[in-house]
Write a structure and sequence with these properties.
The chain is an alpha/beta fold. The chain has helices at about 20-30, 45-50, 75-80, 105-130, 155-175, 190-195, 210-220; strands spanning about 10-15, 35-40, 60-65, 85-90, 135-140, 180-185, 230-235. The protein has a single domain (about 10-235), classed as Rossmann fold, CATH 3.40.50.720. The chain is built from seven helices and seven strands; from the N terminus they run βαβαβαβαβαβααβ.
């Protein structure tokens, strides 16, 4: 994939201290962007700083609960004056029970973590992008969001909801110079996933760096014809 130039662009990456978030932050920083990233766990910051090295001068760390819409993007707009790209990679996975045994608390956790955050970010970031008459929004859904497999209803419903949110939002803002899309990763090759599935063939899983390159492309002008899409990023699995 060719090099992309994001010099002068302001990119909001959610969950930037996680395994995927670190790669996405690094990819945008290498491409010249100014990156603001949200996080919740202080202990994950050193891994991000190790990944980005000297580029950390161009990153703005914000400790924030994305489930609370109060002042959700105000710090970023105050610092940079705009948000050109939203790369939302925050989320979580919880499964293993049939619908008849899912606790209401667990259902709400999946909806809040995967879908409500995508909604609130869309609401506030896109409002800023409308004022700018430009912007790129990339959310992270998941392959199971296309079809439930059993014992995963809360997760599947939350990720399917992200796809429908993207489709609806894309229709609302396509005349305003804003693209809205999402990606559908399969199993991501991370240390926690390797520990959870030690007998799997890791070579078939999609790598965080590969996903980061797809997100980077969707944030460029080359992706202008793509709007309201759910892009498969399954790896070889």
């Amino acid at each position: 994939m060719k090099d992309h130039d994001f010099s002068g662009k302001v990119v909001l990456v959610t969950g930037g201290t996680g395994a995927l978030g670190r790669e996405v932050c690094h990819a945008f920083l290498k491409a010249g962007a100014l990156v603001a990233t949200t996080y919740v766990i202080d202990e994950e910051i050193p891994a991000l700083e190790s990944k980005i090295g000297d580029l950390k001068k161009n990153i703005f760390l914000i400790k924030k609960d994305l489930g609370n819409e109060k002042d959700l993007v105000s710090e970023i707009v105050k610092k940079y004056g705009r948000i050109d790209v939203l790369a939302n990679v925050v989320g979580g996975y919880m499964a293993g029970k049939p619908v008849t045994e899912i606790d209401e608390k667990d259902w709400d956790t999946m909806m809040n973590l995967n879908l409500k955050t995508a909604f609130l970010l869309s609401k506030h970031v896109v409002a800023q992008m409308i004022r700018q008459s430009s912007g790129k929004v990339i959310h992270t859904a998941a392959r199971p969001g296309l079809k439930g497999g059993g014992n995963d209803a809360a997760y599947v419903a939350s990720k399917s909801g992200v796809i429908r949110l993207v489709e609806s939002l894309a229709e609302e803002v396509k005349s305003k110079g804003i693209n809205v899309n999402c990606i559908l990763p399969g199993i991501i090759d991370t240390e926690p996933n390797r520990r959870a599935m030690p007998n799997a063939d890791f070579s078939k899983w999609v790598k965080p760096s590969e996903i980061a390159r797809i997100i980077l492309f969707l944030a460029t002008e080359d992706s202008r014809p793509i709007n309201g899409a759910a892009i498969p990023v399954f790896g070889l699995a």
